[in-house]
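It would be a great kindness if you could assist me with a short task in structural biology. The matter concerns a single protein, recorded as an amino acid sequence and a row of backbone structure tokens. The record follows directly beneath this note:
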Amino acid sequence: MNQFVETDHDASFLNLRQKLIALGILANRPERLDTGDNSPADELAFGFDHWCLCVLSEYPGELTNRQRALLNALDAYFDEMCREGNEQLWTEEAIRNSDEWSDIRRLAGMALESFGW
């Protein structure tokens, strides 16, 4: 078997890692994140949600309580931010300066640290 063949497990954790890193730098470089028609924040939130749920559901035994808690906290934070009436949180100004996005970056950094990434 080729050692470079990526398993679903490896892909899931790699994609989760990439989304967490991107969330951590989003405020500093949103113009560098080419995400098509959607805003960088939308794409990263959707991407994080997908890979977070994948890892949480497919590999729960491989996560520490802290890792699981941080991923769930980030996912819940995005759920709250996506509620109707919070559209102002998805502007470039909000991404750079809002307390909510500051919390997202902090939680993403804590999650990265919890995985040793």
Q: What stands out?
A: Confidence is low (pLDDT under 50) at residues 32-36.
